Amino acid sequence: MQKSSCTRCEKPASTVCAGCKSSPSYAVTPELVSVTYCTKDCQVADWPVHKLLCKASSTRRSLFRAASTIQDAFLIYREVVFDKLFTKVEEKNGLLLLTEGLYAQDDIFVPFPETLAKTKLDRQAILTHLTCTDALGWMHNFIGISAQLEEYAVKGKNYRRSTVVVSPRGPDFNDSRDYEHDLLKITLPDGQAYALDTTSAQYGYYKPIVPWDDFFRWRVEYVLTIRPFGACRLVFQQELDKNVRAKEKIHGNPLAVGLDTGIFYLNNEFSMRLDRSSDEWLKREGLKDFSTVLKLTQETFEEKKKDLLLHIEKELKSYRDHYVRGGRLGRKFGKAAASLPRLNKGENF
Fold first, then answer.
1. 179 and 130 Cβ atoms separated by less than 8 Å
2. Cα–Cα distance between 307 and 80 in angstroms, integer?
């Protein structure tokens, strides 16, 4: 709630500190807080006291903006490269059941099942099912803040619901609760820590940013590994490097080295396109880096964010259409993919 009295002298106030205006409080359900003054003189006089709080609050605001942008960009990315054919989506006993169809189409990419996703929340759950490793490994361009970053792999608990893929061939199913979950711990300069979890919709949680202590106490059963930021991406790159010779055999058809490696290869291609499209947008807008965007006024930030996401979506779709219909994959890839089972066994490729 915005104060109506001066922070320094408690007189009626109307001047708002622009540096930390509408910053989220440190809470599971944060409120937007602004610091107000009765006059410019009071604001100047209070600056020695307020400056540390102002910096911490504006950094927290940047983090929340970065988190929402990362989540939205990743959902766009997943929809463009969606590769699962679902024929039925239903809610049953706290589970979101996704029945997988038989692959008979020519392309590996499958249109997202818009008519089956009844709500926006269902849509998020479908797009994020077993993609936490992808999100952690590929989404590096949008952090834009000064902070300590650590990659956590955890075993979760207290799921609000779980997303399960059911095989059309028999009793096999793929429950997101059965696998480790990857996310980012972000510790700000003032010591406040947050969990950045852009794929938690598969468990029934939809906010991408949560205070770390609350997240850990309520949603983590135990920690499996803690790695420095960039470790997951490095593993991806090493996996690609290991398959350099195999990639040389691809000649426009990643399935020459198997379905999983082919999809992994495509994820790398499109994630690099995502990075390039965001860099191109920054250059077009005359901005140095994404941290500049995060510090804009709320109205301007929302405008820039919308424009950035539209640019990313347009570029990824154009790249997909060129990649597939232009012949780099070709119908041979799609037909080969159609003959192979695609029930993910947790590799997160």
1. yes
2. 17
